[in-house]
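Course assignment 3, question 2. Fill in each field.
Student: A.L.
Task: Predict the tertiary structure for the chain below.
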Amino acid sequence: MWKQKAIQVLWIIAGIGVVVLLGAAMQQKSHKTCSDVKIEITGAEEHMFIDEKDIMEILNNGNEVKGKEVAAIDLRKMEEQLEQNPWVKNAELFFDNNRVLTVSIEERQPIARVFTTQGNSFYLDTAGTRLPLSDKLSARVPVFTSFPSDKKIMAQSDSLLLQDVITIGAYIIEDSFWMAQTAQIDITPQSTFELVPVVGNHIVALGKADDLENKLNRLYTFYKEAWLQNGINKYEKLDVQYNNQVVAVKRGSYKTIVDSAKASQVVSDLMNAHAADTTNAISVEAVNRMNNTRRDTVRHVTTPPKPAARANDKPVARPSTSNARPAQPKPPKPQTGNQPRAVLERRN
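Answer field:
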């Protein structure tokens, strides 16, 4: 009986001792200082947009961490401060047994650089997060131009277009050939994509971002055959939007088609304009005829006809109102020379 009680007392004493030792150890540890800082950055294979110097500036924040008491260091607050940096995807901090502060940073990996129609530019990662440009370096990633919006809160159509940018950028950055062959990718007003190659003076119409692997595989096969046969500079545009085919437009043919379409449109516009002018001219002529008919009708009603002149009618002489004298009769002409001679009668 007394042995059981003794055993219980010993267990209680041992438990109290353990608690005391743990408390003393923790208290001693809390008074100890940070011996060193170890920084590990992962997630960035080629680009280092944030380095150890940037991490230390955030951790110190005006008060150096090394040599500071461990109990006075708020690890959770430091993690939140680090994750406020747009290039930091995740941050984890902890102390090891040697009181070394270990900082584990996961950096965001850009997969595309986007230029908007407003003239702004930013990077994109796989999660669709916009990343600012860096003064340290420029990432070697696919370049997309003519993105229609630079707003953080976008319309649904722009959000879907941004997902297509991520899809194409992620595929190209994983393929060494297309990474070397792609100069830039233009976004058309119809929200389709056109690839501008590094080698070759042509445009590749990709269309939407769907079935991208098959499209680029067809283009790669066409490249091998075209280079061997005719050379790649013979073509002006390559269209891979359609299944199981590549539509190749020879140089100059596309311009001819476009010029023909423009000419047809110009002729159509001229014909429409001529028809409109003819209609207007006919309308104006009809209005003028109506107005002339109306004036003739009014003139016929209001103006009586003049009476016809008679043959026996003579103009009536009106007395003159002037003060002129009446004309004097002319004097008779004197008789000269040729007067009749007297006839003498003879009497027998």
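Instructor remarks: Residues 256-261, 297-304, 309-324, 335-348 have pLDDT under 50 and may be disordered. The helical segments are 2-31, 52-60, 75-83, 156-174, 176-181, 212-229, 253-302.
Grade: pending
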